[in-house]
From TrEMBL:
Pfam families: DUF7561. Residues 60-81 are annotated as: Disordered. Residues 64-81 have a biased composition (Basic and acidic residues). This is Small CPxCG-related zinc finger protein. InterPro entries: DUF7561. It comes from Natronobacterium texcoconense.
């Protein structure tokens, strides 16, 4: 799996899929990662880890992503505006 950083908190994440996983099957088939790219209604897209996705409000915007902070390895939070 490819490695990148979360657009919200900056933690290192693995991205499922890609050419590195094209010939693997079963456990390492590339279907699991620690981040996913989301496209928002405002037209922006962001690679976000699961802890960041969990704290975003409904109908998030790019400003919400800018407010994301890493708390520890498993949680994120939104900073005060």
């Amino acid at each position: 799996m490819a490695k990148d950083s979360c657009d919200g908190c900056g933690r290192t994440v693995t991205v499922a899929g890609g050419i590195a996983n094209i010939w693997t099957f079963g456990q390492d088939d590339g279907s699991e990662g620690s981040a996913i790219t989301l496209e928002f209604e405002d037209g922006t897209d962001h690679l976000l880890c699961y802890p960041c996705m969990e704290v975003l409000p409904d109908n998030p915007t790019a400003e919400d992503v800018e407010r994301l902070e890493e708390v520890d390895a498993e949680t994120s939070r939104l900073a005060e505006p």
